[in-house]
Amino acid sequence: MSCLFCRIVAGEIPATRVFEDDQLLAFADINPQAPMHVLVIPKQHIATLNDLTDAHDGLVGAMVRTAATIAKDHGYDGPGFRTVFNCNAQAGQTVFHVHLHVLGGRALAWPPG
Ligand code: 5GP
Ligand code: ZN
What is the DSSP string of the chain? Predict the structure, then answer.
């Protein structure tokens, strides 16, 4: 298994897990860009947003709702937080297993770099 995030799902690579259910895993980013920086991923391997089909609509909805719950658990629902999906190289995607960044705890500039 070569995919880094599939290896985290399998427990072959350690991660600080903050949420898990049958279809999703959320864990702390190893190089945090904000006081809270969590990645929400599907347990099944999907390389990029370009690979999603309508069969994934429920899964993606669960990812977004899980991100909001994690932000709320950190107290950032009121102050605000950011969710980001990077897709392919020009957007900065480096791990080709779909992941939703959840960032909070500081003011975040817009537009992003
Ligand atoms: P991308 O640039 O693909 O949108 O985001 C990939 C993210 O995965 C980066 O923020 C990076 O810090 C994080 N990351 C890369 N390798 C690891 C790892 O081994 N463990 C964890 N927890 N995060 C990682
Ligand atoms: Zn994978």
Answer: ---HHHHHHTTSS---EEEE-SSEEEEE-SS-SSSEEEEEEESS---SGGG--GGGHHHHHHHHHHHHHHHHHTT-TTT-EEEE---SGGGT--SSS--EEEEESS---SS--
Q: Give the predicted TM-score (pTM) of the model.
A: 0.98
Active-site residue among 37, 56, 74, 99? 99
The protein residue whose alpha carbon is closest to atom 21 in ligand 1 is 30
pLDDT tens profile 61-113: 999 999 999 999 999 999 999 999 999 999 999 999 999 999 999 999 999 98
